[in-house]
């Protein structure tokens, strides 16, 4: 009931243009409803922005949702704000991503490759534009916490956000969930050496534990400037489309096929384990690749590369290439 009252007040204050925009996105996709409601409620809470002391910036809906859920259980809800940046920065163009035109170019690139509904892509594009604008408008007096991990996606995100904040004087803190897990957990050796690969793999209670146990020290000026410079260079890079993270260094690649060998290796292993070379469900293959790959990629990218390998004749398939649940693959003879 209280939520409905808040929504009504916010909607009454919307301009005609804003109302039309919200209606458009809600009609495009039923899944947009929850995002719109959350956005409206955040707008309604804007009058209490002076109470916000800390802004958390998180890369991806999974860690963003976990962090929101766990902070909601504490008094943090009144003093903390969470900005979620969607997508995976290890893949796709980054040029001019601080502008709406650059964001639109990035999502056109995905639309040409991924088997995703155009509505779904449009919603994610809208979320990224919204996140970028929120970051640019963070007040100077608020502390900023950037959550990252040891993968190309979140390390790039860290650098891009620092580029967006280049002219800000806010104190900035970086929470690396990989480093914090192995530093703060009492028995980290029970986990795999490369766990967690991403912040999204960390359970909500551990995120809260890391946040509360972390001895905060602002990012040192020299390191902040160096990472910011890397981010600014990425915003000018129109050559590379794929990125890797190895030995604490980012790799930049212009060939889309650098993951193909690992996909082939995974299918070879499946054939060997099962003692035959029968067709494998594409979804199973993609799950194997995402699960075993040391690089943190999204399933949509692996599915795109799988279709490219089919076109090259390296895989044969049966079914319909309209989604990973609709076809099976095997290595060609």
Short précis:
With about 325 residues, this protein is of the alpha/beta class. It is built from 13 helices and nine strands. The mean pLDDT is about 90.
Description:
This protein has 333 residues and is of the alpha/beta class. 50% of the residues lie in helices and 14% in strands. The protein has a four-stranded parallel β-sheet with strand order 2-1-3-4, with helices on both faces. A three-stranded antiparallel β-sheet has the order 7-9-8. It has a two-stranded antiparallel sheet with strand order 5-6.
Top keywords for this entry?
13 helices, alpha/beta, 50% helix, 4-stranded parallel β-sheet, 333 residues
Strand order of the largest sheet: 2-1-3-4
In N-to-C order, the SSE pattern is HHHEHEHHEHEHHHEEHEHHEE
Mean pLDDT: 88
Percentage beta strand: 5-15%
Radius of gyration: 21 Å
Largest sheet: 4 strands, parallel
Q: Could you give the distance between the termini?
A: 63 Å
Helix content: 40-55%
Question: What general form does the structure show?
Answer: globular
How many E-type strands? 9
Low-pLDDT runs? none
The DSSP helix count reads 13
Structural class: alpha/beta
């Amino acid at each position: 009931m209280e939520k409905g009252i808040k929504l009504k007040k916010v909607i009454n204050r919307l301009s005609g243009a804003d109302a039309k925009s919200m209606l458009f996105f809600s009609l495009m996709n039923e899944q947009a409803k929850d995002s719109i409601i959350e956005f409206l409620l955040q707008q309604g809470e804007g009058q209490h922005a002076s109470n916000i002391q800390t802004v958390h910036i998180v890369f991806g809906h999974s860690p963003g949702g976990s962090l929101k859920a766990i902070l909601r259980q504490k008094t943090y809800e009144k003093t903390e704000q969470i900005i979620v940046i969607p997508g995976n920065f290890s893949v796709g163009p980054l040029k001019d991503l601080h502008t709406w035109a650059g964001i639109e170019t990035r999502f056109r690139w995905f639309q040409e490759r991924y088997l995703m509904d155009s509505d779904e892509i449009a919603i994610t594009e809208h979320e990224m534009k919204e996140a970028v604008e929120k970051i640019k408008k963070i007040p100077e007096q608020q502390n900023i916490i950037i959550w990252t991990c040891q993968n190309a996606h979140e390390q790039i995100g860290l650098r891009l956000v620092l580029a967006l904040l280049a002219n800000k004087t806010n104190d900035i803190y970086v929470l690396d969930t990989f480093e914090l897990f192995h530093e703060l957990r009492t028995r980290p050796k029970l986990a795999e050496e490369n766990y967690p690969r991403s912040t999204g793999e960390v359970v909500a209670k551990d995120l809260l534990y890391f946040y509360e146990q972390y001895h905060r020290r602002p990012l040192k000026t020299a390191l902040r400037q160096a990472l910011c410079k890397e981010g600014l260079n990425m915003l000018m890079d129109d050559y590379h489309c794929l990125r890797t993270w190895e030995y604490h260094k980012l790799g930049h690649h212009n060939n889309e096929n650098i993951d193909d060998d690992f996909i082939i290796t995974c299918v070879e292993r499946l054939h060997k384990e099962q003692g035959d070379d029968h067709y494998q469900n594409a979804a199973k293959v993609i799950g194997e690749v995402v699960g075993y790959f040391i690089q943190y990629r999204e399933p949509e990218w692996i599915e795109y590369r799988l279709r490219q390998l089919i076109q090259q004749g390296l895989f044969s398939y049966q079914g319909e290439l309209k989604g990973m649940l609709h076809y099976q693959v095997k290595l060609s003879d």
